[in-house]
Amino acid sequence: MRILHYSDPHIPTPLQHVPLGKWLSKRALGGANLFLRRQHLFADAVLKLDALARFKKEQQVDLVICTGDYTALGLDHEYEAAFTIIRPLMDAPSGYVNVPGNHDYYMPDALREERFRNWFGDTLHSDLPDYQVDGIWPLVRLIGDDIAIVAVNSARPNPLPWRSNGRIPVKQLEGLAALSKDSRLANRLVFIITHYAPLLADGTYDKRLHGLTNAEPFLAACAEFQQAMILCGHVHKCYHVTVPPTGQSIFCAGSVTMAKREGFWIFDLLNGEIQASKGSWDGQQFLLNTSSVSFKVVLRAP
Ligand SMILES: [Fe+2]
Predict the structure, then answer these.
(1) Which of 21, 107, 165, 233 has the greatest CB tally within 10 Å of its CB?
(2) pLDDT at 15
(3) What protein residues have CB closer than 5 angstroms to ion ligand 1?
(4) What is the whole-number distance in angstroms between the Cα of residue 34 and the centre of ligand 1?
(5) CA of 148 to the centre of ligand 1 (A)
(6) What is the CATH number of the domain that holds 192?
(7) For 62-78, how does the pLDDT look when each residue is reduced to its tens digit (9 = 90+)?
(8) What are the CA-CA distances from residue 279 to residues 22, 23, 52, 119, 173 (Å)?
């Protein structure tokens, strides 16, 4: 079983497509400007995502996971562009699982109009619908006999321009804790996915205005699982860190498209061991760095 985890593609769209009414919104302007000034760093996003789809095919990826931020402002035309470009990544044999990022819910209307569900609805079915206590979250996908994906949503609109933090609603944390005790997950490796990184690469919490504000209870709920790993994005840096004192792994995929930061993770599950390998961009194609950064995580016996 080979799993590709990527994040934060931030697909740029022409600014003239942004409806005038959105620009007249003062609250949108401040934060949007901050991001859009960096938009040149994502200029080759489409080319890189095409290359990622080729990589996925050549490397025989079975399952694809995306931890959000397809867009910059969560506008409908951005979703349309993202959906079209991402589509070749969605046909992996074991499926495609994703969560929204804060940019996908940039303003409250993105949430109100359910744009993420409207565009990515086909990727949002849950195999354990009883646990969907907060809209469609937590969402569970059972993959073969060995793997489960549990997706929780930590993204929300952030109308204040200086704030880009996230929070997992208590209902979802309770759902997550309940899932850790469900016998249908007991003998599986569980990938818990969300947009926000619970810890940075150095093992510290992210800043309050940028990070996951309830990282601590989230990590406590994740620790209840017999064998689980956490996958996230939001921080545009590809890294692995372990959670003290549980030793549970967090993999942040960074941004797959951001110039000079391109990265993602590949997970290979074989004989009860998982090997994580970092992907990198050589200017023309994505490569798998099995020799330089790969390592093995030995799963705890069920
Ligand atoms: Fe983000």
Answers:
(1) 233
(2) 66
(3) 69, 101-102, 234
(4) 13
(5) 24
(6) 3.60.21.10
(7) 999 999 999 988 989 99
(8) 36, 37, 10, 27, 31
